[in-house]
Records
---
Amino acid sequence: MSADDAAALVPHGANVGMSGFTGSGHPKAVPTALARRIEQAHARGEQFRIGVWTGASTAPELDGALAKVNGVELRLPYQSDPITRERINAGAMEYVDIHLSHVAQFVWFGFLGHLDVALIEVTAILPDGSLVPSKSIGNNKTWLDQADRIIIEVNSGMSTALQGMHDVYYGTRLPPHRKPIPIIAPGDRIGETTFRCDPAKVIAVVETNAPDRDTSFAASDETSEAIAGHILEFLGHEVRRGRLPPELLPIQSGVGNVANAVMAGLENGPFSGLTAYTEVLQDGMLNLVRSGRMVLASATALSFSADATRQFDRDIENLKTKIVLRTQEISNHPEVIRRLGVIAMNGLIEADIYGNVNSTHIRGTTIMNGIGGSGDFARNAYLSIFMTPSTAKGGSISAIVPMVTHVDHTEHDVQIIVTEHGLADLRGLSPKQRAAVVIGNAAHPSFRPALKDYFDRACRLSPGKHTPHLLDEAFRMVNPLR
Ligand code: 0RQ
């Protein structure tokens, strides 16, 4: 049926589980049609808002369109859409920011309420009714299993050669009936290549032909190249010390330009036979796979620029032997991350001198995107690395502060902080030792005197000398101070 007819089947107040993860695999037509319907209802003075649950961020035609018409009552779990962000920060939309690996199990536990509709993009419907996923899996398996009704968008813009790349695990259970997740190497396949789908629940099938979001990256600059350089040097050092094998351990790489630059650095670095156990596979990692530097990559989503998408689509048969796409509860599963010994590399907004990290909030109150999978990986990784330019907003704000204004990753989950000025290796250090290394190695030189002055006075005047702080001035640096 048409997208408008399908959208007419979603009622006010429904919780809708939509496909989509970092701009890939989201439904392309029904959300926009739904936004039109919501706008018309509002114009008639009727209430119409829905709950939107996804894998992660989507695209303007989903998050943007629905936020613009004030159609979203509650959003979860990760978003990066400017209009959605504005609505959340204006207090006009509720937002629940949870670890990506928790979302599916929270739905199975019943923690998030009832899921009314699943709205899922797929590549194809097979004769037996099973569904070939598109370029992300996210929480789609759970949405299909848990929702009362299902709307399917079949995107003929997706290559049917995608069939076989996915691994949909059906072995999850509720406690106390859980069993070990049987992944012992990043490429292990433990599930099925398609989604099961009860045809009795399908209320609409809509045909589309549309590309994913074009997730382009800025060309590497001096800052991101310097950060990548410090990380490569550190990894080489760990290999020489016998703490990493020559082919390293499986890599997780977060979103954004710096993460992409680190992948570009690996392309020209000394390591080969690399693997990845990550959630998002971006352009830089695709290059590593295509060049043969990386032999295997496991993820839940492919998030590419338009150029990389063309390269991927051309080479898909070959890439299918090297890339596995999984459900996000498995791509981000703490048990598997811990077992494999993943090297986690994520971005941050600010870190404090003791190593607590804020990945989500500007000045403690304004949400940027969300924690995404960074916590799943940081807490359970073999090496937990956070990387950032040392300053923001043209050098006026220090990314290293006395005390973070919001905590996503506590000092216990953060081992290494890297900026363009250097790398702070915090492993085995006490809080005061950590502060000296963070200020000395990672802070921008122009902010070091202010940070050192704060730390020195805190060491003298703080009532407790374990994690010295001056609580009445800890946040003063958030307002530019030089
Ligand atoms: O805003 O573009 O308006 O200037 O924050 O900062 O430096 O472009 O960095 O794109 O790498 O994003 C933490 C947000 C970093 C990201 C975060 C402003 C800065 C800019 C973005 P402007 P950059 P990146 C896997 C793992 C959480 C989820 C995660 C993220 C904007 O990495 O969302 O890791 N992480 N998931 O100017 C004021 C500061 C600031 C600041 C930065 N201290 N004060 N503004 N900015 N620092 C993926 C998934 O989970 C799906």
---
Amino acid sequence: TPLSSSSSPRDTVAASRRLPVGVRKPPLRVVVTGGAGFVGSHLVDELLARGDSVIVVDNFFTGRKENVARHLADPRFELIRHDVVEPILLEVDQIYHLACPASPVHYKFNPIKTIKTNVMGTLNMLGLAKRVGARFLLTSTSEVYGDPLEHPQKESYWGHVNPIGVRSCYDEGKRTAETLTMDYHRGAGVEVRIARIFNTYGPRMCLDDGRVVSNFVAQTLRKQPMTVYGDGKQTRSFQYVSDLVDGLITLMESEHIGPFNLGNPGEFTMLELAQVVKETIDPSARVEFKPNTADDPHMRKPDISKAKSLLHWEPKISLKQGLPRMVSDFQKRIMDEKR
Ligand code: NAD
Ligand code: UDP
Ligand code: UDP
């Protein structure tokens, strides 16, 4: 097995547990911070299905118990209500660190809490990884590229980020989290992985979390107009959640540190997205224009050649295939709301 690029004494301890790529010794003890959230809960489903033991650490800021309720009776599953800004002692083999609000509406709600979560929360999880020799994976974001001057974005691009704007608690927070991750790797020999996630959608997103796909789908199902911010010509690339979960697990199990872009290169303007939602749900759906928010990136599209060549990973589900799977989940939850 090729070892990762660092070779500290700690690595040799970890190396004794390490198996050839693709071969693993289940069950692993895995922590998923933010595991009651949208992405985290899908990741938990997959890890439990593979035979791992999973501890979810979540403060339920944007996550919901219902997202993991089906596992509560499983002896391999544990749910801890805890805020990652505070230290925690656990004995585990792997840490998937997702805890952080991801929707702009949520992370701007309490920016100080957001940056504390990104900095102190990540520091605590890295401290934990160091103490127990666990492998640590950070879910960073395409927002580290800011309003990009390079298109599509490669991992080598350093970004174009406003350090004092209303989004900075999130994008600068994640940039600092990446820095901490690399410093714990270089300075303390922690085995780390960094994923830069691009816009992801799917079942279990909060109905009113303010992100564009969830907004458009919920609005159309409720017979309200889709709210297009600005002229609707800004672009995003939308990834279905199961592709992301595959990518996260593949990265964790690989011998590569990253960072890796994990996203679907299919690029859409917001007006094009509205058109796909209209075709999928309701041909009579309408759009309504609203003023855009500050510092909104004009375009975003991942270059995923690095993940393709080193992880042999690429997304499989197009927007047109993924959207209907999300719609049925939203339909059910919107019906439940009305009861
Ligand atoms: P989400 O809001 O659904 O999930 C985040 C989870 O973290 C929630 O369960 C929330 O309660 C929990 N959390 C927040 N602050 C916490 C704290 N201080 N202590 C403990 N738990 C806390 O968001 P998501 O879409 O599932 O995103 C998961 C991760 O992926 C985030 O780190 C996010 O930055 C990253 N990401 C997501 C996307 C996307 O499009 N979904 C894109 C880029 C990056
Ligand atoms: N930490 C934690 N759980 C652990 C080990 C550490 O929450 O099992 C926290 C610890 O409280 C500290 C942070 O992680 O706030 C960084 O730990 P580290 O040991 O790297 O730094 P130090 O404690 O020496 O400042
Ligand atoms: N957006 C929109 N209508 C909405 C919500 C968002 O037009 O109801 C736009 C927003 O201005 C941005 C894009 O959709 O250009 C993606 O926004 P989102 O909040 O989903 O994620 P971001 O990529 O900004 O983190």
